[in-house]
Amino acid sequence: MTSEASPDLVVEEGGGSAPEPGATPSVGALVVVLVGTFITVLDFFIANVAVPAIRSDLQAGAAQAQLIVVGYGVAFTAGLITGGRLGDLYGRRRMFSLGMALFMVTSAVCAFAPTIDVLVVARIAQGASAALMVPQVLGIIGTVYTGAARGRAFNTYGLIVGLAGVFGQFIGGALISVDVAGLSWRTIFLINVPLCLVSLAFVKRVIPESRGAGGTRLDLLGALLVTGSLALIVFALLEGQERDWPVWVWGCLAGSAVLVAVTVLHLRRRAADDAGPLIEPALFRVRLFTVGLAATVVYFLAMGSFFFILALYLQQGMGLSPLESGLVFLAVGAGYFGASLVSARFAGKLSARTVACGPLTLAVGYTAIAFTADGLGPQGSVLWLLPMLLVAGLGMGLTTGPLTNLVLGAAVPEHAGSASGLMNTAQEGGAALGVAVAGSVFFPALAEAGNSADAYPDAFALTLVPLVALGLAAAALVLAAPGRAARG
């Protein structure tokens, strides 16, 4: 894909305008769409901190409390590809605005939920709203920005995704600790409302409407098949590690495999008939896109699961409060922020080989953290972990934005919505599935040691072993991609 607009891309008038060749596009569009990105990723991580307070306030059981997190994650992940395709067909700005409006409403319902059942349903609806909004972000960036500006925008997107994940626990702990107006955990959802209102006021002013060419109808059967497949896979893996892999979980996984096979056949048939498949198979004929997407899944398996086990280790193993734990996460955030700024400066010059340095650095950081945590034991000071956490953050910052830029640079503009939906699914699905991977090692290790606080350092260090392997695998996949520069 070149930096010029494709003739197959439709950019409409009516608020905002596409940049002229060589022009510097307004930062307003980027700010608005990144607000949407930040709050949706934040809401995935921030709820973990609030679960104890929610259980106490609403008398929720363990399974109900888990659905607060899992329900959002499954709905979010399963709907991303369909959300991206809706943007291609009906307008990315239009779908972004609708998704943000629905996210604002569902956030308000979450904030004032009188019972746990209402909260769980609202969280599922909130995840579905996020799935409509988020895929439009990468599509909008890819069509509004050109040249080096596009590379910088993609890297800024990666920065925001990482900061939302890294600082989610800190922000949640701070909001709950401050306890504004006695609202406790409700403030973590209520804060979305003013952010959405302000963003919606500027959407039409700064973002031009765009869509893919062709104007075919939505592939409803494809949407159902893809959503059902992803929902079954994510739900089964998350619930499997929580419930010790009962028979029904394996049944769900078997059913998802059948659905995936049927989905592939359906998409190929729609493409052969030129009937506008939900996912364009032609995307996977580009080796850079396919290999890069696989690398994204593997990388987010390692990244998302790390946040999960680090929070457990710090709070339940080392006895830190949510706010203290959040402060430790700032070391990861500092590394992430610094590396992202460096990556953004060289956005147009990054090759697949240089991008591979990111997951390699991540693997080095994880290895150092594992040895340090094991040596500290349950009584040591977590301050010794800060330099290693900084290295891990550097690895994340060197990977997230540049890898996104590398992969989406291989997708043609008319399929920008579908490509971004796939990319977001790889990111969110990888992070969610990573929790299941980490949990399948972490919790059995704890149980074998009697679930005592003294067992947490060893379990934490042991769980980092597969995460190191995932980091190395992500680097190997990136190196297997064509050695072209990440294009702006």
From TrEMBL:
This protein's UniProt keywords: Antibiotic resistance, Membrane, Transmembrane, Transmembrane helix
Family annotation (PROSITE patterns): MFS
Region (Disordered): 1-21
TM stretches of this protein: 27-51, 63-83, 95-114, 120-145, 157-177, 183-203, 215-235, 247-267, 288-314, 326-347, 354-373, 385-408, 429-447, 459-481
InterPro entries found in the cross-reference section: MFS, MFS_dom, MFS_trans_sf
Compartment(s) where it occurs, according to its Swiss-Prot or TrEMBL record: Cell membrane
Pfam families found in the cross-reference section: MFS_1
UniProt topology in membrane: Multi-pass membrane protein
Ranges where the Major facilitator superfamily (MFS) profile domain occurs: 29-486
Record protein name field: MFS transporter
Organism listed in the record: Streptomyces zhihengii
